[in-house]
Amino acid sequence: MNNAPKSSEITPKELFYSRRQFLKTAGLAAGALAGASILAGCAPGASPTPAPTLGASSAGAAGADATAAKMDELGDPANEFEAITNYNNFYEFSTDKQAVAPQSKNFVTSPWQVEVGGLVNRPGIFDIDALRKFDHEERVYRLRCVEAWSMVIPWWGFPLRKLLEQVEPASAAKYVRFETLYDPGRMPGQNSAWYQWPYVEGLRLDEAMNDLAILATGLYGEDLLPQNGAPIRLVAPWKYGFKSIKSIVRIDLVEEQPTSLWMAASPREYGFYANVNPDVDHPRWSQRSERRIGELGRRETLPFNGYGEQVAHLYAGMNLRANY
Ligand SMILES: Nc1nc2c(c(=O)[nH]1)N[C@H]1C(S)=C(S)[C@@H](COP(=O)(O)O)O[C@H]1N2
Ligand SMILES: [Mo]
After folding, report:
1. pTM
2. Who lines ligand 1 at CB under 6 A?
3. Residue 208: closest CA among 109, 282, 118, 319
4. CA-to-CA distance for 302 and 130, rounded, in angstroms?
5. How crowded is the C-beta side of 260, counted as CA atoms within 13 Å?
6. Atom of ligand 1 at shortest distance to CA of 84?
7. CA dist 78 to 40, 140, 151, 189, 273, Å?
8. Residue nearest to ligand 1 atom 10, measured at CA
9. Cα 55 to Cα 84: distance, rounded to the nearest angstrom
10. Residue 40: is its pLDDT beyond 50?
11. Whose CA is nearest to atom 1 of ligand 1?
């Protein structure tokens, strides 16, 4: 998803995390992806890893709730922990999806604070420990990357609305602007001049208040690992994955529509709304279908990533074709 992505990033490919992993997934009529070019260097699978086997298809292997099969409301099984934590977009660490996990593994996320301000009546600095005390729940969401691959992830988090209610948005507030940590010493990708750091994303205030929008601090019931945006990240599942900004340190209520890092990098390709929409092609590829990580073949992409019932009303009267 940079200006000139490697074809390996946008083309169905085979990704084998390990033979064991492959056999498990294959047994579920699932396969894997990422192709020849990635295959050879498939870091996570190169040697047997001691990573927890909490994936859907490992149910029964260890028993108990932690390994029970998880699925989304459409019946799609959650991807395995190994896939979710070893195939990542996090350009602050690497533009190579399989390099993000190793490159970020020593990223220290404690202490951590999130400053919430702008057009609010009660601005505040929230320590990560305080945010962890918000009433958390599991949300099993599909994550659909603009690059046309997807996963199902069992997030652990709380509605963004709960935090916004605490700071009391002022009536002039129309948008929410999020910012990732800026620290090139700890996030080496930020030394790249290709992008305007820090990573910024935004939602319209009514989108942010929608129940689907959560702040996640974990997945599979464990604290987030750095590669997934530790210690806290946004998840807006009806939008392309790039909207779900990681490792947040600032949230501002603002009057003007924020300019995201991707809008600044390539406005022709990445818009503000970025709702998942199979009818609007990316300028360089179709959004009609997607490859679900862990499966062979492709799936049809659903409008709003399958969440239209909850969010379509937010866009009544808008020309969605013009809001890529
Ligand atoms: N700060 C930051 N947030 C980010 C990104 C990033 O590069 N930096 N990548 C985005 C993209 S393109 C996707 S698809 C998702 C991937 O989330 P995951 O690695 O947890 O699956 O994170 C999003 N959030
Ligand atoms: Mo993405």
Report:
1. 0.83
2. 1, 88-92, 143, 145, 180, 199, 228-229, 241-242, 244-247
3. 118
4. 36
5. 22
6. 21
7. 26, 7, 7, 29, 26
8. 242
9. 9
10. no
11. 246
